């Protein structure tokens, strides 16, 4: 689709979400094929829903033998191991035995028994994953990898790098609300990106001016879930948090990307709760964040002061600044 402003847009569905690329090239249309190829390749490698994926093969061979894998899968797994280690297992890429328990069978929602959950949790330990330069091995039978919290981010960063390498020019790559900008905006103003409201569908909580950053990643308990009557089971399994912290329902990370993925992600921040999220951010001075609690309190790091606009609603949000030196 082409607009009068010479904005070329293509959209697809992939990696379990909506994908969109917008290019503001000045001359002619830019081929988005290299971008789509990256998303397709990562999905092929990492999908736990496809029996043909390399991840599914690793899971089937758990406790039996190692599996030869693509070098990109090695990169993803090593990045995931770094996050698992940094968060001391709050984010654990071997959680597939647990996350796979909740699903639909013949149109009906299957809720696992407590004994099933306990048995599955006994198989979750990122330290039981061995990754070499070309082979991957899960040490115990019935262990399962789940890369849902990192594969999309890897693909998004790789797609942005490809766009820069091939001279795409000014562009936005959107993977289900996780966004990378490429190049300078045509009017030389900073990109402005919206943050999804976690409790108002199709509404924004805030907008962020990317004056010093080029990447926004948002995780939320509302993105993927199973509803059974009045009960909602999120794809993010949160720890119990004390009253001094708070339960997080949304976490956005704003930063300037580098070659390696961050040692943290929004899923880990939500799972750990507000207090732990603050402690993680204290160790990551180049990463800014917007955190939302279940009480609709909005916390943002001090580096975002002046660059974030919290949109007003009838139910006014309380906004707090995270002072990392005081965390």
UniProtKB/TrEMBL annotation:
Cofactor(s) required, per the database record: Mg(2+)
Alphabetized Gene3D superfamilies for the sequence: ApbE-like domains
Catalytic reaction(s) noted: L-threonyl-[protein] + FAD = FMN-L-threonyl-[protein] + AMP + H(+)
Keyword Magnesium in record: yes
Record InterPro entries: ApbE (IPR024932), ApbE-like_sf (IPR003374)
Pfam families: ApbE (PF02424)
The protein's Enzyme Commission number: 2.7.1.180
Keywords associated with the record: FAD, Flavoprotein, Lipoprotein, Magnesium, Metal-binding, Transferase
KW rRNA processing (keyword) present: no
Alphabetized SUPFAM superfamilies for the sequence: ApbE-like
Domain of life, per lineage: Bacteria
Family indicated by similarity: Belongs to the ApbE family.
UniProt protein name: FAD:protein FMN transferase
